[in-house]
């Protein structure tokens, strides 16, 4: 089982877990409003939540890769890729909505 830790599909699993865990960390920071009213430190606080969650996810993925077989890791890779796509779509839509609101406010003040 230990030889599975250095296979290519395991490395892909580690990378996908890092990215997914990072998104989960910044989502948790958004839910608890960790960076609200912190000024310039707010971004660093939210980023810190993401990095800590990514490190925890990496440790968990090492244990999962050690204990499970190849077929389960392949399925988890697909699930994690879909999670990353979902997180990206959610945050992109949220960004576009925020941009629309800012454009609307600018047009209101110019009139």
Q: Report on the biggest sheet.
A: none
The best one-word shape is elongated
Number of DSSP strand runs: 0
Distance between the termini: 68 Å
Structural class: mainly alpha
Our count of helices gives 3
Mind telling me the C-alpha Rg?
Answer: 18 Å
> Low-confidence parts lasting 5 or more residues at pLDDT below 50?
none
In percent, how helical is the residue content?
Answer: over 70%
Helix/strand order:
HHH
Description of the molecule:
The chain has 3 helices and no strands. The chain has helices spanning 8-31, 41-67, 70-110.
Topology of this protein?
Blueprint: H1 8-31, H2 41-67, H3 70-110
Key terms:
about 110 residues; mainly alpha
Précis, in short:
The chain is mainly α and 111 residues long. The chain has helices spanning 8-31, 41-67, 70-110.
């Amino acid at each position: 089982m230990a030889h599975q830790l250095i296979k290519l599909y395991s490395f892909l699993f580690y990378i996908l877990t890092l990215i997914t865990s990072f998104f989960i960390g910044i989502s948790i920071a958004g839910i608890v409003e960790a960076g609200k009213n912190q000024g310039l430190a707010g971004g660093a606080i939210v980023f810190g939540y993401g990095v800590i969650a990514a490190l925890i996810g990496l440790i968990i993925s090492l244990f999962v890769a050690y204990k499970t077989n190849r077929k389960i890791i392949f399925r988890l890779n697909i699930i994690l890729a879909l999670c990353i796509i979902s997180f990206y779509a959610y945050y992109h839509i949220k960004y576009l909505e925020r941009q629309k609101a800012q454009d609307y406010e600018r047009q209101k003040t110019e009139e």
